[in-house]
Amino acid sequence: MRRKHLTKIVATLGPASEQPEIIRALFQAGVDVFRLNFSHGTHADKKSNIEIIREVEKETGRPIAIMMDLQGPKLRIGQFSKGAVELNVGDAFRLELEDNQGSEERVTLPHAEIFAALNAPTDLLLDDGKIRLKVKDSGPDFADTEVITGGSLSDRKGVNVPGVLLPLSALTEKDLRDMNFGLDNGVDICALSFVQRPQDLADARKLIQNRAALLTKFEKPAAIQHLTELVEMSDMVMVARGDLGVEMPPEEVPVLQKRIVALSRRMGKPVIVATQMLESMINAPTPTRAEASDVATAVYDGADGVMLSAETAAGKYPIESVAIMNRIVEHTENDTQYRRYLEADRVVPEATAADAISAAANQVAETLSAKAIVTYTTSGSTTRRAARERPDVPVIGLTPSVETARKLSAVWGVHSVHTNDARDFSEMVRFASDRVLSDGFAEIGDRIVITAGVPFGTPGATNILRIARVGQFAGQRI
């Protein structure tokens, strides 16, 4: 199955989309990566999701990436005696460590770390920013606040502390259990939530031990202060605009989105733009024009992927959401301005053999009107380098590692293929030739450009470029 879109589509599974026939339909509609949200559901649910996805993968012969999205240290208030209260502007409201039923005057906040980090006059945001409190006084087990923005507040709503670095690890005890479960069941990408500092990634990296790609979700202002270092330490990146928009002024989020996407592209790290992309389709069969424009903007920026969350996990129109996102992506990529934007933002190659070969492959493919760039890779680095050039022809990623093939399905423009291990150049060219023919990328006699690393199986050693004609095993090596 050949995709027409270059920018990959990530879809979240949930109650509306966990049935085998729905997952198959989502894949057929254009999904490249399935996201499992470990904030909801049980391990039994997730195991069933994984088994169904792998069955679809087997049926279609196409590698599919599975992303495990860990909940992270989600901070929440306690419960109210009446289930909810109404807070009015100017009211005094107390947050306490002590576990008692809440009222119009107080509620439990079972997070001593927050109290330890508070200093007046800090703002606290509750229920995704709908309620704003200003801290007037605080101690190790309380915070006295004034209501700045009022409204209805109910049980277990989330708490955000903008501008404050909290002494919390990005991995909770629940996350550790979930991570072990996901890795044992073969997930391909581990997404880390509420990252604040480089140490969070270092801790996660030790636990993952190369069993999955490490994805950093940028959703805390504290993480932006370490942006370059965190992107460099990551395998993949996500612009998680939901929580990022809670703690930051809304006018700053679009600028940060472009900044994170541009930096990730320069560093060769696949980047996904997420949250509220087609939000209205949770309840409506079509998106708003603004939402369609939002998806197109991420595509124009050169993001590797765009993500659907509640639209597919809990919405009324999960398959339609993917189909419409696919149409928006394809239509945008067919715009002549799209190539101009990519060319204007082309990444400057580093002074390495691998970057030089990847840049040359793009140029050779353009000069010779080649039908595809075929990369032979073990770790995936050769293919990612080729994709970073954003070539005007498809990138076929051949790899003997099924794990690598799955991860590459999340990378811009890559048609990922799990193939046999090549023993020599002739066999490598034959594999490439056979695949571009069988998958409809070229015909006999067409030129293709092939890159690889020698000796085979050496990660990151892209050092060979070869021009070949499909169906003819003789080629010109550079």
What does this structure look like?
With 478 residues, the chain is an alpha/beta fold. It has three domains: 8-73 and 171-334, Alpha-Beta Barrel (TIM Barrel), CATH 3.20.20.60; 84-160, PK beta-barrel domain-like (M1 Pyruvate Kinase, Domain 3, Beta Barrel); 353-477, Pyruvate Kinase, Chain: A, domain 1. The protein is 37% helix and 23% strand. It has helices at 20-29, 43-60, 112-117, 173-184, 198-208, 221-224, 227-233, 241-247, 253-266, 289-300, 310-313, 318-333, 336-344, 353-368, 381-388, 402-408, 425-438; strands spanning 8-13, 33-37, 65-69, 84-87, 92-96, 106-108, 123-126, 131-139, 142-149, 151-154, 159-160, 189-192, 213-218, 236-240, 271-274, 305-308, 373-376, 395-399, 414-418, 447-453, 462-469, 475-477. An eight-stranded parallel beta barrel has the order 1-2-3-12-13-14-15-16, surrounded by eight helices. The protein starts with 7 loop residues before the first strand and ends with a strand. The model is unreliable at 474-478 (pLDDT under 50).
